[in-house]
Amino acid sequence: MASRWPFPDIDAMLRESDAAWWSLDQEDWLEAFRAHPKIGQRSASKWSQQEQAGIAHAADTQLDELERLNRAYEERFGYIFIVCATGKTADQMLEALRARLDNPPGVEIRAAAEEQRQITRLRLLKWHDEIS
């Protein structure tokens, strides 16, 4: 991305980001996943805090369930649960986590990669707004 800078417009930047993301292999995706806090985990990142705002008012029972399911997910797949949390409530994140726990590993890695792609796009838009 940096070597292709500057982009003619935001849409070109997002297209390049998508193309770059999907050109990576699974190990690259896993490296990106490792840079994320778990859903429900506190983060020093302002953007992560904003993205997980739906957790801020979650009940203790929801937080306990998130923690339990996060552990089950990580044990099953070997990496943390990735979801584009922006605009989602704790219940919606729990629902997504429950549903994706049943995915076959090959399906789930692509689902997690798609969620990461969405997160990256949102962060690029935030970054673009900050520098504009």
Task: Describe this entry's structure for a reader.
With 132 residues, this protein is mainly α. It has one domain (9-131): Orthogonal Bundle (UraD-like). The chain has 6 helices and no strands. The chain has helices spanning 10-23, 26-34, 46-51, 60-77, 90-100, 105-131. It is globular, with a radius of gyration of 16 Å. The two termini are 18 Å apart. The mean pLDDT is 89.
**CATH homologous superfamily classification:** Oxo-4-hydroxy-4-carboxy-5-ureidoimidazoline decarboxylase
Structural class of the secondary structure composition? mainly alpha
Quickly give the CATH architecture.
Answer: Orthogonal Bundle
Helix segment tally: 6
Write the H/E string, N to C.
HHHHHH
The low-pLDDT segments are none
CATH fold group: UraD-like
Rg, Å, rounded: 16 Å
Shape: globular
Strand % is under 5%
When the domains are counted, the total is 1
Please outline the helices and strands.
Blueprint: H1 10-23, H2 26-34, H3 46-51, H4 60-77, H5 90-100, H6 105-131
Task: Provide a short characterization of the protein structure.
With 132 residues, the protein is mostly helical. It has a single domain (9-131), classed as Orthogonal Bundle (UraD-like), CATH 1.10.3330.10.
Main attributes?
132 residues; mainly alpha; UraD-like; 64% helix
